Amino acid sequence: MPLVDLDRFDFLYANRVKGMKSAATRDLMATLSRPGIISLAGGFPDTRAFGEEAFREISRNIASDAAQALQYGPTAGLEAIKDVIVEVMGAEGTPARQEDVFVTTGAQQGLDLIAKVFLDEGDAVLCEGPTYAGALNAFAAYRPRIAHAPMDRAGIIPVAARETLKKARKGGLHVKFLYTVPNFQNPAGVTMVAERRRELLEMAREFDLVIVEDNPYGMLRFEGEPLPSLAALEQEEGDVDRVVYLGTFSKIFAPGVRLGWVHAQPGILHKINVGKQGADLCSSNLSQMMISSYFQNADWRAYVMRLTSMYKERRDAMLDALAEFMPKEVYWTHPEGGLFVWATLPSYLDATAMLPRAIARNVAYVPGEGFYGGAPGTGKNNMRLNFSFVEPERIRRGIELLSEVIRERMELRSDLERGSHRREGAIHGGRSVGFNSGTEG
Ligand SMILES: Cc1ncc(COP(=O)(O)O)c(C=O)c1O
After folding, report:
1. Residue 176 pairs with which residues in a beta bridge?
2. Domain 3-49+303-418, second-level architecture
3. 3-state SS class at 61
4. Whether residue 32 has pLDDT greater than 60
């Protein structure tokens, strides 16, 4: 059916649909699975590392409980998986109690449910700039205003966050929560230092906001010392109150099971429970039982370590290739863990417009614009580069190809400036995003 036919129901769609847009990475997926493309675009963990035998063993282990695995379950999740979640959070240094844990269909559902229970149309959310595009998508359905506070190599800048909150308050906006990905942030790869975590907590108290701490990558640390979660810091001060912590099995086990969790105080969890009943009744028992079987019977820490050392090798390959091939005008972050590097091109380059040229040369990335919910054009000269899914040699080749595309664009611009070239295609001026991150160019 031609796409245009879909529009004939425009008059029936809810207003919220206007604010909703598809994530660039989701849209790119079909193109990126084309053979030959070196995709530095997706946010895929390397599930090939898990292996057929381990998968078979889990399936065998839960087969005797087939009736339960195939049944509906409690909305908040099965007891066994909550025990596993308590163990995982403990392993990362955040004490947790079973009753404060609520199972979700991925952390992504956690984001949707949080927005569902906190946001009325016109409320505001304070996010890092840039921020996780999937969170912006989840929030968008509830039609909030998005404010960004910039980051540097130490994470969100507290003075800027405070200024934004003050301005919002003055302008009559109700900021309901602050959303942060404190470890190896998606997309920027930066980690918030401990001092700023404390400052953020203090700020949340002062402005009486909730903090949504989204931590899918914390356990994927390659170097440096682990830092306390905001949830742990709050508990140190004797509270489980305003930090709503999101965790997931996607990056320490596999995203295909679609299982995550929310850790929060009972009042908030109750609202989330009601929200989830309307969304999907409960998360899959089958997934919960697979995960609890694996985490109880296998050495899951060893598996996470295996993933981490594989990703470290790939991160190193990416950083080395960037240093070797990129023009000196390009900058990038140095992630101590996680899956992503964030690159900043000269401000006159447009990473969105450049993408088809990169794909034609068999390399892909995610343009930076989609990681900002506010002013159009912000993030135009940025790109997110993923290193977790592609082998080191291909990462190297991918960066080499990408640097050729960037160089060509830069040369074209120089030629145009010198007036020695006829105009061959538009170069859109990109706006610098004031993202002053750790760069090794
Ligand atoms: C910061 C962040 N939050 C949440 C998610 C969603 O994770 P899940 O697979 O648990 O839904 C992702 C996925 O990449 C992410 O990067």
Report:
1. none
2. Alpha-Beta Complex (3.90)
3. helix
4. yes
